[in-house]
Amino acid sequence: MTAPRLHADDVTLAYDQRVISRGLSAEIPDGSFTVIVGPNACGKSTLLRSFSRLLKPSAGRVVLDGKAIDRYKPKEVARTIGLLPQTSVAPEGITVADLVARGRYPHQNFLRQWSTADEAAVWAAMEATNVQSLATRQLDELSGGQRQRVWVAMALAQETPILLLDEPTTYLDIAHQIDLLDLFAHLHREGNTIVAVLHDLNHAARYATHLVVMKDGEVVTTGAPRDIVTAELVGDVFGLSCLVIDDPVSHTPLVIPKSGQWQD
Amino acid sequence: MSAVAQRELVVCGALALAIVLLAVVALGTGDYPLSVVEVARAMFATDGGFDTTIVLEWRLPRVLVALVFGAALALSGAIFQSVTRNPLGSPDIIGFATGSYTGALIVLTLVGDSYVSTAVGAVGGGLVTAAVVYLLAYRRGMQGFRLIIVGIAVTAILHSVNTWLLLRAQVEVAMAASIWGAGSISLVGWDEALPAFAVLAVLAATVIVLARGMRQLELGDDAAKAHGLRVEPARLALLVVGVALIAVVTASSGPIAFVALAAPQIATRLTKSAGLPLVASALTGAFLLLAADFVAQHLLPSAVPVGMVTVVIGGLYLIGLLIGQARKPL
Q1: Taking the model in full, what pTM does it have?
Q2: Which residues from B are below 8 Å from A51, CB to CB?
Q3: Which of A25, A80, B121, B188 falls between 20 and 30 A from B293, CA-CA?
């Protein structure tokens, strides 16, 4: 078996002196919808940041297509790996189309600033996220759900085969969360490799083809949700006593908490 | 072309027209008034005689200096406000103008009064201040808010240093320094203006190259990095150019407040653009400084340095800005 396009080899991840993970290895299977889950502060966003080159490992290396990711030119990586950051800021008054167009930066340079390929990519991205009718609207006027779709469109406009999503559904209501996850599942079926950090274990179990379960900066286990999500694992990792049943709709594991007055 | 870009184009055209009109009026105003036709004839006729001397030799340098310096100050302000994401993140607020004054004062007291040494002192003072502020504010990357706070603190320290230097200086030196410190473009002739113009042109060209990175930085560091921008080098390059722009102007004219602070914000409101519009800011700055110099020269009972006019308008503007910010929910 050959190594997947994107993997982390024995990396140590730290902010200044604060070490989050030591000797961590993780793989992103090609063409997978990988979801990284784990309790708060387990280092899942940190791992995603290292995959997206936002955090340079203090030891070990993140490998893209057989070469350490920091040996590429930044724009080269940006044409292969897109990222939806946890927080983004938009300049006041920017329109949806203008914002999405800024995702084309890695495909442009000083001499070739705007091309028909850029135009096409921007429209395709807005179509995929269903925001094309909002193209001339200002971002400030939109609802939270619409705004998040626009940010996704900006990442899609980058036209990268790998897309990283850092807690993309946080702060959205349940309908918008599902809406967005359906969109990611669609992008996955279209052939993109998706890597997301999610908080909701049931969402993760439903949408992921590959789970990476983390605790205290280490990978506890990986695999298809159906194979690995058990009451024992949830108890181990989250310290939550629960029942895992078959989701009657998607036939994926469904975690039912048994805490508080329902404890047995 | 989008509606926003169209609006920006229209606003820029209107600003350019206003600048030309104001420039013609300024060229015709003075102890020896000239009509619009006379100004035009003096500009383009080969044998304009005395009128040509007045317009081309006496008045044109000052008008051009006002326009170019105003544009440079505004560009510098736009860069700083974009990088710090704050309308208060202007080089005159965060200490570079004060640092230039300190540099000039040190040179004036130690070396003596000459245009070149003052200019070198001012540029050096501005750059050293900028470096100190940047290093003090740098912590795992640069955050705009910290840059402003550190800048304000450094400004306060430098103000007292400046006062101390003035008190220790000989009376004539202190006089010369105070005149320089008021910010005036009346003493800048062709000989001083042309080298400054050349340097500013190079800097403006650099801004055009860096502008695309600036637009990425507006999206936040994470998004900019994810798009393949080398964030810290790009930001440092922008800050260096921003400092250089204001340092060159300050070296020639002394500190001129308000233009860097206000022009980008006025231009943003006029164009309703996303992010700070660079061309419109430059044009607004050019117009503002020319207008302020016109007021300083002709509309006040006795002529004063243009820096005094901009400081008064700037103070009022700053109060308005602070009130507006205080009302805005965080």
Answers
A1: 0.88
A2: none
A3: B121
